[in-house]
Amino acid sequence: MTHNPPPSPLPIWRAPGMPALLVVTAAGFGGFSVLLPIAPLWASQGGATEAGSGLVNGLLLLVTVMTQPFVPRLLHHFGTGRVLGIGLALLGAPALLLLFSDQLAWILPISAVRGIGFGILTVTGSTVVANLVDRAQHGAAVGLYGAAIAVPQVLLVPTATLLADTVGFWAVFALGALPLLGISSAPRLARVLREQAAARDLLPPTGSTPIASSDGGKSQRWMLAGRLLRPMMLLSGVTLAGGALLTFAPQMSSSPATTAGALALLTLSAAVTRWAIGGLADRYGAHRFLWPLVVISVAGLLAIAAAVQNPEATGILLFLVGMTLVGVAYGGLQNLTLVLSLAAVQRKQYGTASAVWNIGFDLGTALGSVLIGTLATAFAFPPAILVAAAISLLTLPLAFIRRPKVAN
Question: For the whole model, what pTM was predicted?
Answer without folding.
Answer: 0.77
